[in-house]
Amino acid sequence: MTRPRAEVSPDTGDRGAAAPPTTGLCPAMSIHVLSALILLLVTTAMSVVMLLVLTSLKASRVVGVKEWRQANAIAVLALLLFAARGALPDLLTIEGANGLFLVTIALMYAGFRRHLGLPVQGARLLVGGLLTLGGVAAFHYGLDSIEVRTVSVSMFHGTLCLAIGASVPVSADARLRYPTLFTKVAALALGTAHGVRGLVYAIEAWMPGTFDAMPTYNLVFMALGTLALPALTLGAVMMANARILAAAAHAADHDHLTGAASRRAFSAFAEREHARAQGSGSPLALLLFDVDHFKRINDSHGHGVGDRVLREIVERTREAVREVDYCGRLGGEEFAVLLPDTDAAAALAVAERVRAALDTALEPVPAGQAVCYTVSIGVAMLEEGEALDGLMARADAALYKAKAGGRNRVVGAPALHPHGRALPVKAQD
Ligand SMILES: Nc1nc2c(ncn2[C@@H]2O[C@H](COP(=O)(O)OP(=O)(O)OP(=O)(O)O)[C@@H](O)[C@H]2O)c(=O)[nH]1
């Protein structure tokens, strides 16, 4: 039984026996060849578009973008070579095009692995690629078989698609969940499609004529293949964008010197806690503190040492408070800690603990010269109906009193209302 064969394949460059029907426009060209050529050109155009999109991310320095860009650039070349089958020597349009297309998927894989901070097994990729290409050449110049060439190429592409799918974890982070889920599902689906394709061609190679409509099957696989690189690239772009957004949000929410919450993040957290406390009636305490005579530290030991003091202050403060307590740097040498569900007595105790932890010297001692520092702390309890600004202002006034009272001490803000949740006026020194 003679069987119709695929005439142009993006993975093998095959141009087998012509299969009817032919197009009305060009009698010499069958509908399958024309369809395959159109699919190749569409895929090429999509790779060019993806290349342009990825180029917009070049300056982002997101790890993986370089490999994804290279993959799409090489894919354009490979696809044009596939499309030039018949017009250029076979060595270019079969071995050359297939070799480049293997590099394309290998680069996509390497890009995802590097993006995720995972190792890339370069030696294995090289061996797998060379074996596959060797198979293509052997079943071209030796026993000429499009089917076996297709099985060989599909195995390499399928394995790497499945490996990409297995490498990408669905992130718990809301920003990354959709991009990672999309990439994982797309890679696993493409890997499976390559597997099915390899299986169909393996059966056809083993038992010729099993499938009557191979040219049509080939077109279906090609249509799926058209989506492969753009789908993987789309996932890559989404993952890169999510990472850029996450980095921007992290930079906006954290003080770059100390790692404490930025003023913006602290305000947002304070507003949420303020609304919660006003709604539930649970106590909310605010500690405002400022390094004593910090200018002297800078002037005597330099800004580098001053910076180290600020970093150490944040570390020690975090150790002195609970996980749920929120520490922010409001600016310069001024910090704040918000203590949810904390009553006045506990807030004063925490403030005293923080003060004692920060009545210390920088470690390790810089250049053999001890750098001692202390802080002054103002404490205020939120009162019913009080605005956040009011709470901040009362804590600030208490801090001012602590400074005026001699520094290195804790002062509680007086109550606004006689029966409000308030701290004693007395300084805790
Ligand atoms: N090293 C360093 N110094 C900073 C930073 N931000 C602000 N400062 C310095 O902090 C010092 C604050 O000085 P002052 O406002 O006079 O306060 P102080 O010397 O701590 O005095 P009191 O608050 O009254 O005890 C200034 O010298 C600022 O240059 C920073 O990020 N790093």
UniProtKB/TrEMBL annotation:
It catalyses: 2 GTP = 3',3'-c-di-GMP + 2 diphosphate. The keyword NADP does not apply. Keywords: Membrane, Nucleotidyltransferase, Transferase, Transmembrane, Transmembrane helix. Residues 1-14 have a biased composition (Basic and acidic residues). Residues 1-20 are annotated as: Disordered. The chain crosses the membrane at residues 31-57, 69-88, 94-112, 124-143, 155-174, 186-207, 219-240. Its EC number is 2.7.7.65. It comes from the Bacteria. Residues 282-415 form the GGDEF domain. It is an enzyme of class 2 (transferase). SMART domains: GGDEF. Pfam families: GGDEF. GO terms for molecular function: diguanylate cyclase activity. This is diguanylate cyclase.
